[in-house]
Amino acid sequence: MERGQLVFNQTLFDEEMRKSGLLNSLSNPIFPLKTQFCFIHLTIQEFLAARHVTETLAPPEIKKFISDNVESGKWHLVLQFIAGLLGKKIKNFDWEYKDCVFAFAKSLKVTDGKIIVKYHEVFIMKCLREADDEEITKEVCETTVINNIVELLAFAEFYNLSPKMGSEGYYRAATDEMDQVFSALMELNCTFDHEHTKLTTLTLEDILMTKAGLPIMCNYFENGHSSQLEQFTLNLNRIGSHETSKVCEVQWTLSKCARFGQCLDNEGVMVLCDTLTKGLCKLNKLHVRKCWLTDVCVQTLIKALQDEHCQLTDLLLGCNAIGDEGACMLFQDALRNEHCKLTGLNLCDCLLTDKCIPSLCKALQDEHCQLTILSLARNAISDKSACMLFEDALTKKHCKLTELNLVRCPLTDECIPRLVC
Question: InterPro entries under this entry (predicted)?
């Protein structure tokens, strides 16, 4: 293994091994009388290497072998076999090997409670699972850096995919990795299914959500593995209305904050809005950014905000083509409704102009409007409209705004006197 040797001379194998059925015999083109051998499958060679390590090395040496090779892909299957063999030794009351299992988790890197899931992290989870001892895995999770994890991030870009791959190949490869992430998280029951469960934030980036992989993710949410999850983020993912529906169905009773970036369309948002009106939905923060939304979905969103069961207090629709018409509908029919609980609204870079400002002023003047934070940044809001906001909204007794963001709007110093007044 160390030399990368795959073909061996007959002197290395005794007669019993040659008759085992584990080897293929090869003719030697240089010395025809000397037969060469190779294993019928490389995994046999790797298993035997793992068995050699666990049977010939002392526990401190095994720990060192794991630590020295855990970052090397060449040894990963060997290490998985080692984890399984260690588990069998521990079950036979060879407790001295328990620390060897801990050596796998020591290579994980957790910073400020955050862990970025790459291939290495998934591999470590697999090795811990291979040990097949729930109590030891629980102890590993409680006494190593795993115990500090509160935020989990997974990005397809970390999976070393070739930039030459077509988009379909890129996303499909990423999906395979994400299936492994959720499978590993579910199998590692003691990390997320005990009292010390801490995972509060889960971020999935650049992933294709397919019908094949969807059940795995849904099982993760449905079976209590995410009981402490407060924030769920899907960014740069391709997700259809069917997938959106299934995610909403299993997730929104758990999370308080959902973030979507470049992954939903109008139809997907409509499906999502239907979930907001269900009594069990705990969602109070919804961020849907750069999702190609138009005013087509706004009416459905308004109906959700008008519903007494909707708990949304923070809505971000930044970088979408909402336009003046969509914004006016939001201002008139949602913000002024008695059941609308929005206190934060972000419409930055939403193709707004001065045309929507009169409707906004009327909404901010309404006693039912609860907005305290409003962002209109990067929209075509002129001095005239800014002055209208300052005079006809901010100075009125029912206006509750404490923060107004007009960054990168085409304003000049002409509007400043109205603001000062």
Answer: LRR_dom_sf, NLR
Q: Which of the two residues, 253 and 217, has the higher pLDDT score?
A: 217
- Contact, 398 vs 413, CB < 8 A? no
Residues contacting residue 188 through CB under 8 Å, at least 6 positions apart: 125, 128, 129, 137, 141
Q: pTM, whole model, 2 decimals?
A: 0.66
Domain range list for the chain: 1-40
265's torsion region: left (phi>0), alpha (psi -120 to 50) or beta?
beta
Q: What letters, b where the CB count within 10 A reaches 16 and e where it falls short, cover 213-232? A: bbebbbebbeeebbeebbbb
CA dihedral 38, 41, 43, 47 (to 10 degrees): -50
HSE-CB of 171 using CA atoms within 13 angstroms: 13
Report how far residue 84's alpha carbon sits from residue 62's, in angstroms, rounded to the nearest whole number. 13
* Residue 249 φ then ψ, to 5°: -60, -40
